[in-house]
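LAB NOTEBOOK - FOLDING QUEUE
OPERATOR: T.R.
BATCH SIZE: 2
PURPOSE: Compare the predicted structure-token outputs for two unrelated chains run back to back under identical settings.
PRIORITY: normal
REVIEWER: second-year student, initials M.K.

ITEM 1
FIELD SEQUENCE / FIELD STRUCTURE:
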Amino acid sequence: MKFEIQQEDLQKALDIIANVVPTKTTLPILTCVLMEAADGRLTLSATNLDISITTGTDKVTIKDEGKVAIPAVKFVPFVRSLRSGSVVISQKGKQIQLVSGKARMTENTMNVEEYPALKELEDKNGLDVEAAVLIDMINETSYSVSKDETRPALMGILWEVRPDSLTLVATDAHRLARSGRSMEWDISSDREMIVDTAGLRHLPRIVSGLDQDEAASGNITIFMGENQLSFRAGPTVLHARLLEGPFPDYNAVIPQDNDKFVTLDKADFSQTIRRVSITADRITSQIKLGVENGRMELSARGTEGSQSEDEIPVSYDGEALEIGFNFVYLQDILKNIKSNSILLSLKDSQSAALIKPLTEDGDETGVLCLLMPLRLAGD
């Protein structure tokens, strides 16, 4: 194998796939990136068996076709360190040689036949969705996934695919995030699946790496397989595995009788939480919210005797109420909400709260966040 390519084009392709390469694995071949030069195109792939990414470029001059598996740990950073300009990569026996100007690197390769067979797209007819919308939906839910390996279904995001809508849901039993959008796509029946969150988190980076021509359509194409959910964005294909269920009946835990509604400015709320939480107990991370007509008081108390409080104006005219939350969870919600205004729906100090971002016109956006309260002293 021998080909010539510009450093920035090679680095761009490697940056898309490199994060999938595992640093620790019982299969040494997985520490490699797979490069294939054929038919006027360079294709690069990486997999950790749960996630696979393949990308490619035709901005290459191929002199001899071939395929090699190159350990990524030194090859990728060496390419990143190169100056702009031409890079020539050639294979000689069990080694590859990279030459760029006066820079030169020789690296051993591994047996390409041992590299796992990469998954193909299982569904020829994909579903198109606007890339920005899908990435927003992933960001609006992925922070709520569980880290509890004893409950693997909660480590993924539930996808509810309907002929006219897409809904994503994540929960760790302390909080829940749901994001829904109307869709117009050709699907004959409903489909529900739990998608590995780790795979989905690669999508924003893949989309941000597209050049102007590749991103022209603005769409990601989704392919639903039996054991995987696949995405095509420009020249890149991402495969994410599906997790075994069942996923909890999340609708059963969303309260329908919260009758106290507080409208407030997200930035003001977030900044005040950040300030007051400095004195919060490091174990419980509790911050207390007290709402009454037109105002919200935020306070926190630490075990060392430190305490703080602050107040912000809100739109509220109901009876006074105090409720406690884990401020880290509260901040996670606010960081992943784009709207400037939010609606906080409460019932009492012991019931789940709902947080919904609002448009400039005061309408709901299709995003709902549920947060369980912390018991206040004396409750």
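ITEM 2
FIELD SEQUENCE / FIELD STRUCTURE:
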Amino acid sequence: MPEIGNTEFFIELKDWSERKLNILEKYLDPFTKILGSQNRSKYVYYIDAFAGAGLYGDGSKGSAVRAAELAQQYERGKKPYRLRCINIEADQRNFKDLQKNTAQFGNLVINLQGTFVDNVSQVLNQVSNSPALCFLDPFGIKGIDAWEVVQQIIHRGSPTDFWIRFDYITLSRLAGFYESDAIMASKNLDTLCSTYGISDKDMLFSLISGSTIEEKRINAVNLYLRRLTEEFRKARRMGFAAYYPIKSITGQDKYFLVFATGHLKGAIIASELICSVEENYQREIEEFKASKPTQLSIFAEPTKEQILQDKVARLQDSIASSCSNNRLSGEEVYERILPEWFGKIRATDMTKAIKGLQERGIITTSTGTAGDRKSIFTFK
């Protein structure tokens, strides 16, 4: 039987958590291959700041074990790049179980007991100048409510990407203490401010407030994205952050999975990965609906081809408006439309859109093919 720790969370792997872990695992692989091949030491680090026990009660693998298996796969395959995993866990029993569940991976894994904040200095010393992918997956926001720590990691000088579980429900609850006389109001608002790195409570509240629950939720995550983007731009010149809504198979909102990076290639890989995951999720929803009683609709459902044609047509309009009167590479075109289209398109969609713009005469010249991101395109 697997060691499962002492929290209800580890009893069973839920469908939405499986989707989140698949995203993380599928991104970690190209991240390691690309940056490990470019890095002189060949080392890439995976930092799991809230690692848990490593396994769920039903035997499903958690993030720490999945990452360690990937590192072991590279090692056994004698790859020219090396992945090392640093796991942090505060709960004493979870940590004990984590050690048991990762013991088989030997020196590919380092386990640290305590909080993410308390261990960040040791982690940064261990990682040194190697590229690192940091996974922040707390319960609520406890542990990421220290903007200066996130800031410190971004500014460490080497490529660093983040996947962050953003719990807007907890943040909304904390924001509810604004202008409250409750005993805990001041402390809760301080936590809210510390999460964003904004000390002015009045300004922060105005930025995340809204007339509806949905508006408040979107404002809260968009502000966090702006803070991450700004910080990455200060440190790396380029900054990108976006989110993907994690939902259950029944369509229930759970939280946002935030991605942040300081390099365009990472943003493109994450976007195309999310697109693939979302397509699979939609298929799962259709299968789920098919298993339930349904009502007949008098409206014909659009075909997959019609949906694709509509998406490419809208993508063409977006590219044309954002790139007008410019001479840009394929990568620069991607960078301009990515904030709007993150997680919604694949490379093939971009190629079809570029070809369509060439046929319409909106792209007048090009130095290469439509699918080559190094090609230079001249836009009317």
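REVIEWER COMMENT (ITEM 2): The first strand starts at residue 43 and ends at 48.
FOLLOW-UP: none requested
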